[in-house]
Amino acid sequence: MTTTCSAPGKIYLFGEHAVVYGEPALACAVELRTRVSARSSNDTTIKSGIGTTGLDFEVHPYVSSAIKKLGSPTVEIKISSDIPVGSGLGSSAAVTVATLAAINIEFGLGYGNEDIARIGHEIEKEVQGAASPTDTFVSTFGGVVEIPSRKRLNLLECGIVIGNTNKGASPKKTAKLVKQVAQLKEEYPDSINPIIKIIGSFARHGKEMISEKNYNSLGKLMNVNHGLLDALGVCTIELSALVYAARNAGAYGAKLTGAGGGGCMVALTDSPREVADAIEKAGGQAIITRFTSEGVIKE
Ligand code: PMV
């Protein structure tokens, strides 16, 4: 038997970086998935776009850790993914969650999704040194989620386009940028603390706008959130070029998503084709996708 599970990536509508200091954030699962097949076998092999290895904590740290956490069964793992790696879309959480779920079913281990999310978070912390539970939680359960309360909100009914700068992608980027913001905050607490508080206020307003389906206002606040992330020093010229291109093409709003320093931006729009074209013209790689309530699933 082979079991295939898939898990989605995520974007932040509001609140990255501020969430590190206890402010609320809104994260949404998007229909870009990582698929992992698990088959009981005599040897452990892990096959992905990076290459084929055995249990290998250098090349395949997340998958190797997932196998180990579940008691090191000998298993053949095959991975394919729509999610750009290390770009703020939660690719590592998706591969971790999908691997845990596929092994869980293939070997009849009996874990529930709460366990998958918890073990997934443990793995991310071990591999990265630090990680918020956001990515593994959203990848496991899907939907639109307020962090840290884990409250689920309605799914947005508008379109979404992601723009990848194809620059600065690195799994180590998040830790570096979180540290950079922490230093700025330490140097100028009276100036930086209010910025963090204001970013928190967007998630509070955003919740209401989502329930009212007021995507115009939501977009406006995303634009302000982008400006404040720029103020915190985590934006790049390439990210802003894609953000402005998306806005000029009529998006409700656009901002960088995730840690910044390169990686991806996100635009809300009802004209995804026009916004995607504008992003490509501005030098980015556009991905038209949609919000999804589906977290990890068996395929
Ligand atoms: O780039 P990502 O998807 O790892 O997002 C980082 C979000 C931060 O708020 C900057 C850090 C965190 O752990 O919440």
Could you please describe the fold and organization of this structure?
There is one protein chain. The strands form two sheets. Strands 1, 2, 3, 4, 5, 6, 7 and 12 form an eight-stranded mixed β-sheet that branches. Strands 9-10-8-11 form a four-stranded antiparallel β-sheet. It is globular. 42% of the residues lie in helices and 24% in strands. It has helices at residues 61-69, 91-106, 113-128, 134-141, 173-187, 189-211, 215-231, 237-248, 272-281, and strands at residues 2-14, 25-40, 45-48, 51-53, 75-81, 144-147, 151-153, 159-164, 253-256, 264-269, 285-289, 297-298. Strand 6 (144-147) and strand 7 form a beta hairpin. The protein has two domains: 3-153, Ribosomal Protein S5, domain 2, CATH 3.30.230.10; 159-289, 2-Layer Sandwich (Alpha-Beta Plaits). The chain is α+β, with helices and mostly antiparallel strands.
- If you average the pLDDT, what whole number results? 96
**End-to-end distance:** 13 Å
Q: Please outline the major beta sheet.
A: 8 strands, mixed
Strand content: 15-25%
Determine Rg (CA atoms, Å).
Answer: 19 Å
Please report the number of helical segments.
Answer: 9
- The count of domains is 2
Oligomer: single chain
Q: What shape does the CA trace take?
A: globular
CATH architectural group of the largest domain: 2-Layer Sandwich
Assigned CATH class of the largest domain: Alpha Beta
- Helix and strand content put the structural class at alpha+beta
Helix content: 40-55%
